[in-house]
Design brief:
There is one protein chain. The protein is built from four helices and no strands. By secondary structure, the chain is an all-alpha fold. The protein has one domain. Helix 1 (about 5-15) packs across helix 3.
Length: about 70
């Protein structure tokens, strides 16, 4: 049985752009994002962080400080 967090975890892994990550942030609670993120392997977490870091470095949304700049 696939849970809501499993679906979110898959969506995090499929994201390839900051816009795709932003869509998840809009559609899910902070807690849900963190729980799904915590279920990713370290390598997968790094992939998500690199995508989000590209957003911050590009200056497109330099004021955004979300769960992807975590821990």
């Amino acid at each position: 049985m696939t849970t809501k967090l499993d679906v979110l975890k898959i969506a995090l892994l499929k994201a390839q752009t900051p816009a795709q990550l932003k869509a998840l942030i809009v559609d899910h609670t902070h807690q849900e994002i963190l729980q799904a993120y915590d279920r990713l392997s370290l390598e997968q977490q790094i992939k998500v962080q690199k995508i989000w870091q590209g957003e911050l470095e590009s200056g497109i949304d330099s004021t955004a400080h979300t769960e992807f700049q975590m821990r």
